[in-house]
């Protein structure tokens, strides 16, 4: 069930990356954020209710709320025209929690691939904190490209692998995943230095509230 939610998180991240790049207006992106945020709050609630007190199952479901709350926050803020600082500081909390969940994946769940994925999410939410919480607008394009490029390999791809029973996690696969994600972050640096894409609404984008 968690893989279903992860699949659509990939879509939300893709849309939010495009929003940061000025290709999608914040109000247009808000609707998908609300849908995915609601799904990512409903899914862990169902999983916890079905866990029958199993602490490992509850632990596995608990991290999903981080993203559910983020997307609901983004959707509501974009529709209401709220300032983004609250989302930014909440993103700092998410980044810290994602780092803890990465450690859990490595040493408790023995799932190094998802440990790498959690670390990549920690990076994304740290960027959201810097852009939205601290107002470091010079990082907006880099954040947009990084979100866009990491959205599918950290969400949709592992979701499809999990849904089809093809997901595998070992040290070698984790190293390959880390190398791919690092290359994508490097590509974001290169793309950021290129000429900006034309914005659908430059004034609105500068005050956008986006995530992952």
UniProtKB/TrEMBL annotation:
It is found in: Cell membrane. Keywords: Cell membrane, Membrane, Transmembrane, Transmembrane helix, Transport. The chain crosses the membrane at residues 6-24, 31-52, 58-80, 87-107, 113-135, 147-167, 173-191. It is a multi-pass membrane protein. Pfam families: AmiS_UreI (PF02293). InterPro entries: AmiSUreI_transpt, AmiSUreI_transpt_sf. One of its GO terms (cellular component) is plasma membrane. Belongs to the AmiS/UreI family. This is Transporter.
